[in-house]
Amino acid sequence: MTNSDLDKITVNGDRLWRSLMDLAEIGAYDDERTGLRGVNRLALTDADATGRRQVIAWMEDAGLSVRVDRMGNVYGRREGTDPSARPVLTGSHIDSVATAGAFDGCLGVLGGIEVVRTLDERGIRTRRPIEVGVFTEEEGVRFGTDMLGSAVAAGRLSLAYAHGLTDRDGRTLGDELARTGFDGHADVRLTPPYAYVECHIEQGPVLAENDVEIGVVTGVQGISWQEITIHGRAAHAGTTPTRLRADAGLAAAQIIVHLRELVDSGEYGDLRATVGHLIVHPDLTNIVPARAEMTVDLRNPDDAQMARAEEALATFLERLENSGPGLSLTVRRMARTAYVPFDEGVQKVIAQAADDHGLEHISLLSGAGHDAQEIAALCPTAMIFVRGEYDGISHNPREYSTPEACAHGVDVLATALLRLANQD
Ligand code: HGY
Ligand code: MN
Ligand code: MN
What we know:
Layout: H1 3-6, H2 13-24, E1 28-31, E2 36-39, H3 46-61, E3 65-68, E4 74-78, E5 88-92, H4 106-121, E6 130-134, H5 148-153, H6 159-164, H7 173-180, E7 195-201, H8 206-209, E8 214-220, E9 222-231, E10 235-236, H9 248-265, E11 272-274, E12 278-281, E13 287-288, E14 291-300, H10 303-321, E15 328-337, E16 340-341, H11 344-356, E17 361-366, H12 372-375, E18 381-386, H13 403-421
Parallel strand pairs: 5-6, 5-7, 7-18, 8-17
Antiparallel strand pairs: 1-2, 3-4, 4-6, 8-16, 8-18, 9-14, 9-15, 10-13, 11-14, 12-14
The structure holds (2S)-amino(hydroxy)ethanoic acid and manganese (II) ion (MN) (2 copies).
One manganese (II) ion (MN) binds next to loops.
């Protein structure tokens, strides 16, 4: 038996899959158009609170001691033989977007719990404690800033700022923590772990296109979220000549087209631009829109190119504002994170674990944001990607990874965590 056989862990894939499917029923809905079953579990809604309580119950069943911090981040801790040693942390998020599948975030949390169950079943003790984290509002779609819980845990954002963020109904995150009972007492600033490994679905087509199951993630691309409010003038759709209009709806459309022109120009590197939120007011057939509210999500692996793209957008907005009487614009920064590289040493441990499991892997950059990019500020960090089907579609009920792919990803996670937890 070689050394790699000794600490090569294979988890119970059926039990992992059952927990994924059970959690997916919390906040589930039937998508009439596609007939698919989706998940809508926005952060700190009743559905999210129910999901959190279910995860805590699974953590406690697995013998973990659970604490909740003042951001509602949940940590389950498995003691090591050396309680003074810094823990190895894993985890992710269980809050979802409104049209989610069963895997985004949940695979990392439930995978971490499955690793603990398997270590216990095998009677394996590690020198270092192992902790499983569940971070609050990773998606950012309710309170407007993504990776929020992990950003506060790592000190990039303040607790007061986070507690004061509001959703579209004006409810603050602080109030929602209290309402759901997740206004925990544990200190929110995370003591730097020894290392952090997160297992997550890829949410893109790269692993499938390369016909491999495992991604060793090298880092996360930059993210820029802005909210733009365009003020025009409500006017009669029939009687108002075009030359007298200050049409906020038209201006919003011009911004969307301009963003695509920036992307297609190829002058801003591998820029991606999305207007995911757009509403006009008063939103009535026969009234020229008086106001348009929209969000702009930019992604770029190159920070300098991201800055240039943001600059180009700002210049366009200025020109648009001066393009005719009665139009004015306000821009509010929602989120901004730079490209984050992951730790080479942890990537090597993941790659070796994949090799020892006979799983082909490639290295790749993450297109999506993750809690790992925040925890990387505290300790050596990297991620394991699991291949998705249907071009890796995500933030869509069609999101799907096979039971085998999920089990293989968590096998690699288990082996990597075990090896890290026994490092001196
Ligand atoms: O926006 C993201 O990339 C992640 O899904 N929060
Ligand atoms: Mn995610
Ligand atoms: Mn997501």
